[in-house]
Amino acid sequence: MTQNYRRLSAGEIAQMQAQGCTAQEWENIEVAPAFQADYVQDVQFYGSVRIGTNQGEVEVTEGFSKHCAIRHAVLRDVCIGDNCLIENIRNYINNYHIGDGCYISNVCCIETTPGAAFGEGTVISVLNEVGPGNVMIFDGLNSQLAALMVKYQEDQPFTDAIRRIVRKDIEQKRRNATRGTIGNNARIINTGTIVNCHISNDCNIQGAARMHECTLRSIPEASVTVGTGVILENSVIYDGSVISNNAKLENCFVGEACKITDGFTAENSLFFANCYMSNGEACAAFCGPFSASHHKSSLLIGGMYSFYNAGSGTNFSNHAYKMGPMHWGVLERGTKTASGAYILMPARIGTFSVCFGKLLHHPDTRKLPFSYLIAYGDDMYLIPGRNLTTVGLYRDIRKWPSRDKRPHGGKNSIVNFDWLSPFSVGGIMVAKRTLESLREVSGDVATYNFHDYVIKNSSLKKGIKYYDIALRIYMGAVMKRHRLERPQSQVGTGKWSDLSGLLIPLSEEERIVNAIREEQLDNIHDIRAEFVRAQQNYAEYRWAWSYRLIREYYGIEGDITPSDADRIQQDYITARRAWIAEIRKDAEKEYELGDITPDVLNEFIERLDNEVQFETLKYDM
Fold first, then answer.
1. What distance in Å separates the CA atoms of residue 453 and residue 474, rounded to the nearest whole number?
2. Is 542 helix (H, G, I), strand (E, B) or coil?
3. pLDDT in tens, 196-238
4. Integer Rg of the chain from CA
């Protein structure tokens, strides 16, 4: 960007007038020392305008470049960087700072109006569609901070404190910012109106219909793309995300490496870290990392999701009574809904569960994770632990890390990929005890009842078996990942939380919340540093929790000894082989149904056969 400017010479003014240019006041037009008047044609200048060097070229498409120029445009109070190509502005560009190397062509209007917020500071109501608002959108939000805003929304001192912090962060960034910005090397082509938008370096906007009150935040390794027919209102879009093909977003935050496309519409919703949304609709939805919905008839409404996959025709009812759409639910990490699934809110679905059919009675299966929930007419069945031994789970837990498209410097939200963790295994422990208690109380009967759901006798027995397999796999895997020693800290020995991707001891989460409430944490940087610290200490926190679990499970009164460790390792190998055998049976069943070819089955079985190598390696969870 040019630092020193000069006024136009009389000769340059005359030349530009001859080329169809006019100015409200020519003395308010300043240019770079090396400015060339030859490349400014049919331009109307109003207010104060600065123009940088225009001696280079801009590539407009692969293999085709044009000389830097400004032509067929109306400019008012604009600063244009070096070597830009701006042409065919059908209305005007008003009150903007444009960086170096930009290509802006065939655009209707770009302007900043008084009071512009650039999409920041809007309070939206997530989960409860008609609620008073719980999440404040801004450039700096991540899934952990948003999860705290939602989880502790009833804690008014906390809510007041976090909103003060966010407003201060926004004001510090806006200081002396009276103009919108278009960053270096941005491309804005064949687009309608852009009003009150911050557009970062390297952003690519092609064919957007309308953008109003937005921030597009890119980093060098991951730019933002906005495509044909897109409408963005009061939204913030993060690094590497693509919004395309007539998608419409209003009052939304889109985190890093998301794709929202093919007519998907969303309002008052959040999307974090590698979400994929197409064709369907979202309203008041909290879509945590790796949430996906591909189908036209799917509606995500009033729900909190992460590592989630919505089958075609998935629907949620947040309007159960006559008081309005105020109900909401949580589908914990790894949950899926099958084609045509329907869930009546309020509902809480345990981790890594799969939902089939029309699920009524407001299901709450947090005590029975990894389950199948199946509706047959008015009858609701639950198969506890069934998903632990499926091909689907095996594929999911391996695909997510490889599908993280975020560059190292663009991981705004923290994502821990452990599928067996103190959070999920804590649920497994409760589940095993729950099933054992049901059997003890009711005896050996044909069916058992759990919150209006029917559990068959055979399903209960298998559920206990599957949960025990998972416990032994987890304990053996943790033993491999840590030195055999007494934990150095008691942090992590209690309950755990999944804070939209961050697995954290509940005590640490509450400590952070209290520090925000008491203003001991009073800026976004320090709050995010606490999340990072929790992730860095995850292994130690997990060891403290697991050490206690191992001693309890095996009845060890003192320290865990090497002989204990050998026993745990052998149990781990046995359990892991049993788990792989069950997954193999699931794959063979799918083949017998005619759903896959022999080649696909054989390739998958070969992968399972290679699992034996992980029995002695670390980091296989």
1. 28
2. helix
3. 999 999 999 999 999 999 999 999 899 999 999 999 999 999 9
4. 29
- Give me 404's structure tokens: 């993280």
Farthest-apart Cα atoms in the chain, separation: 101
In the numeric block, the tokens 């009164």 are attached to: 557
Amino acid found at 244: S
Q: For residue 392, what are the contacts with CB-CB under 8 A and spacing of at least 6?
A: 336, 354
Composition of the chain by helix, strand, coil, percent to 5: 30, 30, 40
Residues recorded for the chain: 621
Q: What Å distances lie between residue 40 and 11, 69, 85, 174, 535, CA to CA?
A: 14, 6, 10, 32, 54
Measured between alpha carbons, how far is 31 from 2 in angstroms, rounded to an integer?
Answer: 9
Beta carbons within 8 Å of 384's beta carbon, 6+ residues apart: 368, 370, 371, 431, 435, 455, 459, 460, 463, 466, 467
Q: Which amino acid is at 361?
A: H
Tokens in use for 481? 């990942």
Straight-line distance from the first to the last Cα atom of the chain, in angstroms, rounded to the nearest whole number: 50
Cβ contact 140:198 at 8 Å: no
The token duo for 528 is 């995010």
Q: At residue 508, what is the residue type?
A: E
**β 135-136/123-124 pair status:** antiparallel
In sequence order, which residues have a C-beta less than 8 Å from that of residue 293 and are 6 or more positions away? Answer: 264, 276, 277, 278, 279, 280, 282, 300, 309, 310, 314
Peptide bond into 363 cis (omega under 30): no
In this structure, the dihedral spanned by the alpha carbons of residues 485, 489, 495 and 500, taken in order and rounded to 10 degrees, is -100
pLDDT in tens, 24-77: 999 999 999 999 999 999 999 999 999 999 999 999 999 999 999 999 999 999
Closest CA to 8 of 30, 24, 23, 25: 30
**Nearest alpha carbon to residue 621 among 481, 515, 489:** 481
Distance of CA 495 to the CA centre of its chain: 24
